[in-house]
Amino acid sequence: MNIYTAPANYRPNNQLLQGKTLLVTGAGDGIGRAAALCYARYGATVILLGRTGSKLEAVYDEIEASGGPKPALVELDLATANEENCINLASGLAGEFEHLDGLLHNAGVLGERRPIESAGYSAWQEVMQVNVNAQFLLTRHLLPLLKAASSASVIFTSSGVGRTGKAYWGAYAVSKFATEGFCQVLASELENTSKIRVNCINPGATNTAMRRTAYPAEHPNTNPAPDDIMASYLFLMGEDSLGVTGRSFDAQ
Asked: What is the CATH number of the domain that holds 148?
C-alpha cells in the first residue's frame, strides 16, 4: 500500500471551503471537534453529528462565536443507529441543503484491548457497528446528496493498525482494515461515474481521549493536539485535492 501525505508546507487559501456544506461525525470531541472548527474557519457550513448533545452544542456555540457560517446539529448515537435512522437523516438534510460537499467519517470506538481468545462478542459487535456498519449506512444514504454537488469528498479515518495488524488490537484493528477496504471499493466504484473522491486518513498518535485510553502510561503531551494535524483534513476536503481518490494518507 502506498501512503501519502498532504503537500509539504500546505497552506490553503482562506476561502478554501467557502460555500461548502460538510458533515463531520464524532464532531463533539477530539479530532472531529478540531476538524469541524477548522472547516468552519475556512468558510464551510458544518453539520455536527455526534452522540452527546451538550458537546455538539459547545462546538456549535464556538463556531457561531467565531463568526463562522451557522452550523447544523444532529444528535445520533452510531452504536445504536439503524438504517431507518440514516434514511431519515438523509431525508432531513435533503430538505435543508441542496447538496453535500463533504463527509468526514471521524466517529469511532476503541473497544477492548485484549487477545482474540478472550475477546467479548458484544464489545466486538459494538466496534464493528460504529466503525464499519454505521459508516456504510451513512455513506450509502448520503451518496445522492454528495452526487448532487459539483465535486465532493468522502474521508474515512484509518489507523496504523488498520494497515499492519498488531496483537491485542482486536476488533479495532479489524474495523480499520475494513475501513481501508471500504474506501478502496467505493473510490473504485465512483472514480469514473461521479465527481466524488474518496480517501483515508490515519491521524497517527494524537492527544485524544481514545489515545489516552489506549496508552494510559503515555504522557499525553508527547503527542500533537488535534488542531495541529489538520493539514491533510483540509487538503482532502478542499478542491486542492481534485482528482485524488482511493488513497490512504498519514496526517503526520
From this structure: 3.40.50.720
